[in-house]
Amino acid sequence: MWVNPDEVLLASALWITERANPYFILQKRKGHGDGGGGGGLLVGTLDVVLDSSARVAPYRILYQTPDSLVYWTIAHGSSRKEITEHWEWLEQNLLQTLSIFENENDITTFVRGKIQGIIAEYNKNHDIREDDDTDKFKEAISKFRKLFGMPEEEKLVNYYSCSYWKGKVPRQGWLYLSINHLCFYSYLLGKEAKLVIRWADITQLEKNATLLLPDMIKVSTRSNEHVFSVFLNINETFKLMEQLANIAMRQLLDNKGFEQDRSLPKLKKKSPKKVSALKRDLDARAKSERYRALFRLPKDEKLDGHTDCTLWTPFNKTHILGQMFVSTNYICFSSKEETLCSLIIPLREVTIVEKADSSNVLPSPLSISTKNRMTFLFANLKDRDFLVQRISDFLQQTTSKIYFEQEVTRSLNSLDDEVRSTGGVLEDPLYLLTQAKEFLKEQAWKNHFAEYGQGVCMYRTEKTKDLVLKGIPENMRGELWLLFSGAINEMATHPGYYEELVEKSRGKYNLATEEIERDLHRSLPEHPAFQNEMGISALRRVLTAYAFRNPHIGYCQAMNIVTSVLLLYANEEEAFWLLVALCERMLPDYYNTRVVGALVDQGVFEELARDHVPQLYDCMQDLGVISTISLSWFLTLFLSVMPFESAVVVVDCFFYEGIKVIFQLALSVLDANIEKLLNCKDDGEAMTVLGRYLDSVTNKDSTLPPIPHLHSLLTDDGEPHPEVDIFKLVHSSYEKFGTIRADVIEQMRFKQRLRVIQTIEDTTKRNVVRTIVTETAFSIDELEELFVLFKAEHLTSCYWGGTSNPTDRHDPSLPYLEQYRIDLEQFKGLFGLLFPWASGAHSDTLALRFFRLLDHNGDGLINFREFVTGLSVLCHSDLTEKLKLLYKMHVLPGESTEEPDSAFEATQYFFEDITPETSHVKKMHTPDYRAYLRLWNQETRSKLENIKELPKLNQGQFIELCKTLYNMFSEDPMEQDLYHATATVTSLLLEMGEVGKLFISPSSKEEEEDEDEEESGSPTARVQGDGFFQGLDAGEGLVEIRQAKSRDVGAGREPASSPPMEDVKLEDSSPKEAGLSSAMLISDDETKDDTSMSSYSVLSAGSHELEEKLQCEDIADDTVLVRSGTGGSGTDSSGSRGNGLSRSASLDKDWAITFEQFLASVLTEHALVHYFEKPVDVVGRITNAKNVRKVGRPLTSSSDYEISLSG
């Protein structure tokens, strides 16, 4: 390829000159192609270690003027052919032109301009858009694809120099990180090492330090551990690896593939040269995620940039140092000193942005005013003009999105009264003291609002946190929950959204709504608000609306308890948006079908318990208590295990501080009960201790009347636990465990997420195998390997595209056997690798027939059970079952040309008799888990179907069956014997079909003949009803076997060209001459002109006219009939049909054979019996399938490729 001219000082260093002229030199890299001895090995090693482009392009062309010592690289080539084409073009088009110039500077300018023009023209003609990837990175992409056989769809993110430890020997090379794979390549003195690991197979990713290896990354899969060290920037590498592994886990969870963000700003010239556009995209995503988590912003908010600055804080009259963050819809500030001050300014609230006058005290100030008459003064902005321009651009976009939020919100306040009306029930004159405390709290908050501002733009300081920890007043709770959770922003930008969802879901029923109805009356049943239909209806609407907003989650137990509490302090729309914030941002993946998020945090809690209460950790692990308590505590935010008036204080803190509060409180509960827990003998006793403690947590400041707490764990009649004040418990948790940081929790979550998701995947595999192990002859190990291959095929299509939607093929909510499904294109890949009948160019056609047979419900997808059932028949069943399967593949209703009644019978047979357990599945619009369980738990097979119930094979189907048989044998060692045997069986079955016609009613045959004559108008334009082919008696039928290809291959010659297979035009003959013999010629329009396979024809010499058109040739021991070139109905030179009938016109409606006849005929031929009964090496096929690399994409194994060493 032509490259932009680049200066070279030493032209001969490590290069060999092969051609030269006065202006250009063609060179080859030392050691390329011929080994090059020790020097070549050394050069190859240097190329790998130093990341030289010569590894990919070992040829180059240099330009040099005669009087200069400076050379310019103008072309690279990966092959001699490519570089020679460039060389010849230069000689033909440039050499003579250059001799005209007198000044060498003019020559250099001309050559460089010409090469750059060629490159620009090439990019224009091939629609190559300019991107941000540098030439160096494009070379790396080329190396990556060449070394590991990756397709263009596999995007390289970045690559790093490092050492890979194979045993005790380090191998210096390059680590390539792509979207779906981790790859390593090393070449040292002739020894090559390659490693490919799929991110989805990684179970652990750790950054460690040892005495020998101060910086080390350990990558663990299910079967191996891989250690990498000697990184130039280990932190950057590890963060990127974490991010890519997270993307893979997300794909396993919800099937969302990676889509690159094309809206990033252009790369600045000063940016690092090796950073790819994809790496920048991932870096931007990581920063945006941290930004959204820090300020509780909507999940689609993208950070545009951040800069250091100071913020004037009027409450203490100081300038606080921190960072300003600007995104599409928000301006945020966070102080350098954590918790000192933070600020969120939605652009929808901004009225004025102006630059104030600079001074020594206040350099580069920026003033921002909001609708509620608050003004924020920022200073020390490095690039104030640019920042103001960005904010102005975003403001212009925001003004077009501003809605009348206040009017919409007010219109919904009527819903507020439904639940809030219970407040009258909650007020009681006996609580005058607590009412006074409540009044003091309200005053404290009002004073805080007056000093720090109110609403979304308020200054959030350490004082705000202190007020939250002391408890939020009852009548302010809903407002402040919305504010601190960030739900207020989503509600303000989506007016009317909740009402639309309520209307959309009205009257709709599915699995989620059924579960919601079941749990409605279990949601705080002790609370007066949910003892009447008004409160229940509000709860139903909120839960159903969310189920329709997020079908992936739908509804999960525990959501009802949390939502009922939200409704006590917020109206329906507010409660809905609080639930959105909980499920989608603050407790990610908690409420999906497998509660992955809760399991992840359970693992995090175990780690924290080990670090902070080590004396209790071993005891709790032995009792198995941590895993039990954490799910119920975390899923309901302690609402289900604590008295209500105390648990809402926990919710207050959670909305302000996030998940760290829940961890702190859980650790504090364990710490308070250490002595009792250490003396527990079993998990039941430990649960009772904790249950009694949590039941004793009280809130003496609560204005609520006592609500009975129905805690199920209290089963003994022992002495009640002394009361524990909730505020003291929260204060204690901050004192003892307040050092837990949110970023540390996220690190722990990543580690646990890998473990949890891979454990779920392993559990899925085991459950699938356990379900079907009794239905097949495969061993458990074989089934596990097959499941891994089946799932890998699904994942590979998710990576690099497929013909069907990945979401349709993977639904984690379905039963295990239905979770992964593959379509036809994926099945073809596995068919060619695993199925013993796959051979030759016609493997895809056979795969299509097989797929249609396995696809019982006709949705274009097959699950693992269907896949294994089909493979099991071919690998382990007896001859009869294999032939029955082959027979069924050709009587499918879609392929049949029978009368409608016969096709209907076949349909009934396939969808009722063969697979009764799936006959109802296709009728269900929504997944019914109970129905699935009933179906899958039925007995494996009630009985084998009666052979006599199989439909008959008509003439067209028989032709297709014959073609399938011949194509199956094209690569078999016994190919010749199998062809002879198949010809004999074919001839015999044809005669059987003719005999069968004699038992058909003559009157019906005559009527059909009359109708045919009326339609055609000529006796010669149809086939006589007495036979498919007319002609000789049984002894005179001749079979033509074209075996020239086989003999030529055996003799080491190229296969001879054979004429294509065509239908025979049948001449009319008298009934007297019609005998019982028949023969046929197979037609395959798809394989015309395909001379790479042995074809066959069965011909008839039905009349004297036909005999004259045939001549015999003896070739070896085979008698071959060939059509003469004169006249007749043969094919012309182009392979088209002459005057012959179309196949549809030549089919005989009365001709048919049964499965018994097919089976009996095959049993007469020993070669066919041996072929169908020979054992299949299942383990060998599975091993081959794991290691093979298809063209354009590798099919990775369950964990990773073995290290391949050569040299």
TrEMBL record:
Segments of skewed composition (Basic and acidic residues): 1062-1071
Protein's recorded name: TBC1 domain family member 9
Residue ranges, compositional bias (Acidic residues): 1006-1016
CDD domains listed in its UniProt record: PH-GRAM1_TCB1D9_TCB1D9B, PH-GRAM2_TCB1D9_TCB1D9B
Annotated region (Disordered), positions in chain: 1001-1029, 1044-1096, 1121-1142
Record GO terms (molecular function): calcium ion binding; GTPase activator activity
Tree of life domain: Eukaryota
